Amino acid sequence: MLRKTYIEISRQSFCHNIAQFKKCLPPGGQLMAVVKADGYGHGAVQTALVAQAEGVAWAGVALVEEGIELRQGGVTLPILVLGAWPKEALPYFEQYQLTPTIHSPESARLLQDFAKAKGYQQPVHLKVDTGMGRIGFGPSQLFEFWEHFDSFDHLRVEGIDSHLARADEGLDEPTVTQFTRFNALIEGMDARFMPRWTHIANSSGTCDFKDFERGNLFRIGIGLYGQLPSAQLRNKPDLKQAITFKTEVVQLRDFEVNSPISYGGTWVTKRPSRIACIAVGYGDGYSRALSNRAQVLIRGQRMPVVGRVCMDLTLIDVTDFPEVCLGDQVVLIGRQGDEEILASELADIMGTINYEVCCNLSKRVPRFYLG
Fold first, then answer.
1. N or C: which end of the chain has fewer CB within 10 A?
2. Which SUPFAM superfamilies match (predicted)?
3. What is the domain range of residue 29?
């Protein structure tokens, strides 16, 4: 590795976070580690292997391709494909022992016909829409499906699930309404259809709403990586950010008063200034939206980003820190000394969420797994 821009990911933090969420579970509850989008930028296979070793019951992905990657990486957990899938994916469910989600009468029929032609029973989870307004059976579609279930004799419903739309807002409603609808659907089923797994709670729903029936499988996504899903969470678990994004100082230069810095001259020196150039940019996932607004850590001190973030380089005003040297390590996300920059801090500056900050970290940045 020639350029010293890289990401460190802590196995110890994953283990700690899993333990924190286990404390939130009702008796008999189990965890699903959601590792879609390459483990929210942390590495899907590596994250899933840690979760597997820590006794998590399931891994969740969005795409069939993501499930195949886990199997090829040695993951033996049951894997649920949470998202929609095309008919071209049908052969891979049995080949790689992936459990698909059926989310509509059409997807159920496609899977039934394929499994019947191949002569096997396909385990599935059935997604219902209780208020998200996204993929999933509507209530009338669901009961129609149950009425005609005998014609889907090559499907075995192992789970039924839904998705919370606003559980991270620190309010009871409309999440309580979604729980109520979900539980009513389950209670209304014929006993012979009762699935082994019922799940609706995400990271927010797992931490909060403990007084409500929430199923027996809890899908942990952003929380697994040590990020809070929202500052409005009422019962915040003690999480450890798993990711540290590092680079180095590659140049130090002194500028006179009124010197424009970086593209467009959006920042101009107001005094004689020392500017450090660091080896990271938006090509690495350090967003251009952080220009003139974010801070980085050097020698345990916060120092401001100045000028526009470039594709490969970013500029830092180190005038007040004469001890900064060429080659000093720079932390963009993570802890250095007593200071820490969370992904959510960058998200607030960018006007987005910490999920996107982590997912946008470029593949060209090497990942190193500690522990």
1. N
2. Alanine racemase C-terminal domain-like (SSF50621), PLP-binding barrel (SSF51419)
3. 11-225
- Find out whether 302 is annotated in a ligand binding site: no
Q: Which two tokens stand for residue 163?
A: 């998705």
Kindly state whether residues 57 and 126 are assigned to the same domain. yes
Positions marked catalytic: 36, 263
Do residues 153 and 278 both lie within one domain? no
Residues 153 and 261 in one domain: no
What string of DSSP letters covers 178-194?
Answer: HHHHHHHHHHTS-GGG-
Is residue 134 part of an annotated ligand binding site? yes
Tens of pLDDT, residue by residue, the chain (371 residues): 799 999 999 999 999 999 999 999 999 999 999 999 999 999 999 999 999 999 999 999 999 999 999 999 999 999 999 999 999 999 999 999 999 999 999 999 999 999 999 999 999 999 999 999 999 999 888 888 888 888 999 999 999 999 999 999 999 999 999 999 999 988 887 776 789 999 999 999 999 999 899 999 999 999 999 999 999 999 999 999 999 999 999 999 999 999 999 999 999 999 999 999 999 999 999 999 999 999 999 999 999 999 999 999 999 999 999 999 999 999 999 999 999 999 999 999 999 999 999 999 999 999 999 98
SS3 category, 24: coil
CATH code for the domain of 251? 2.40.37.10
Contact call for residues 263 and 307 (beta carbons, < 8 A): yes
pTM score: 0.94
Q: Are 218 and 159 found together in one domain?
A: yes
**Cα–Cα distance measured from residue 39 to residue 221, given in angstroms and rounded to the nearest whole number:** 8
Please identify which residue in the block is written with the tokens 């100045």: 306
Q: Residue holding tokens 């997912």?
A: 359
Q: What gap in Å lies between CA 300 and CA 293, rounded to an integer?
A: 19
Residue recorded with tokens 């899907």: 44
CA angle 10/359/237 to nearest 5° reads 55
DSSP label at residue 185: H
Cβ-contact 7, 280 below 8 angstroms: no
Q: Which of the listed residues 225, 256, 291 is the one where a domain comes to its end?
A: 225
